[in-house]
Specification:
- The chain has a single domain, classed as Carbonic Anhydrase II.
- 12% of the residues lie in helices and 31% in strands.
- It has 4 helices and 17 strands.
Length: 242
């Protein structure tokens, strides 16, 4: 289990990378795009995202993902790489006896991870950090369909300028609205998907997607038409599933 779920210590600087903060100048295209991230990333052999081949995943009795999310004031920022929402203290994920407080969530288009070679329209990454600085990221795949009430609320208060947080008075959200009813998942050990690409991140990719409307996808696409890192080699890592 140490090999499957062991995590390296994630520093506050690494978490800034998970949050999309630009410690280094990087982009998703051009001369500062992913092909050149090795100049700013400590790239190893356990990088994310990956293509999850469901039939090759190892079936095991995995621990339940126990989400205990509470309402939070809206703190939304366009950080130059994605739309990110920072959350107040109080929301947690418990898995295998370890408690991971929720720190923030953000979006990518298309989904960074693929399932059997196919990417979803978008994905939400919910970033958690435990008391020792270790990270656990829950990926919620987003597909086109019915409107999403939480996303609709977020998009109403999109910041007008990059790098500035918006906290409209009286607006609260519940991150649990991003979660599907079915919490079955794939799990593997990977990395941050943005510089500094730190490894030792515990990933939980929920199998069931959540819908959002074509208009909601288009709103994000106007800001970020494509902000997904290319798929990375599996390099022999084991993918577990329940």
């Amino acid at each position: 289990m140490a090999v499957r779920f062991g995590v390296a210590l994630i520093t506050s600087a690494s978490l800034a990378g998970a949050a999309g903060e630009a410690a280094h100048h990087w982009t998703y295209t051009g001369t500062n795009g992913p092909a050149h991230w090795a100049e700013t990333c400590a790239v190893g052999r356990m990088q994310s995202p990956i293509d999850i081949r469901a039939r090759l995943a190892t079936h095991e009795k995995l621990p339940r993902l126990a989400f205990s999310y509470t309402s939070t004031r809206l703190h939304i920022i366009d950080n130059g790489h994605s739309v990110q929402v920072d959350v107040d203290k109080g929301s947690t994920l418990a898995v295998g006896g370890v408690r991971f407080p929720l720190v923030q969530f953000h979006f990518h288009k298309p989904s960074e991870e693929a399932i059997d070679g196919r990417r979803s329209a978008m994905v939400a990454h919910l970033v958690h950090r435990d008391a020792h600085g270790n990270l656990a990221v829950v990926a919620v795949l987003l597909r086109e369909g019915a409107a999403n009430s939480l996303v609709a609320t977020l998009w109403q208060d999109l910041p007008k300028h990059k790098g500035h947080e918006t906290s409209p008075p009286g607006v609260t959200i519940d991150p649990a609205q991003l979660l599907p009813a079915d919490r079955s998942y794939f799990s593997y050990v990977g990395s941050l998907t943005t510089p500094p690409c730190t490894e030792g991140v515990r990933w939980f990719v929920l199998k069931s997607p959540v819908s959002l409307s074509s208009a909601e996808i288009s709103t994000f696409a106007k800001l970020y038409p494509s902000n997904a890192r290319p798929l990375q080699p599996l390099n022999g890592r084991q993918i577990l599933t329940n």
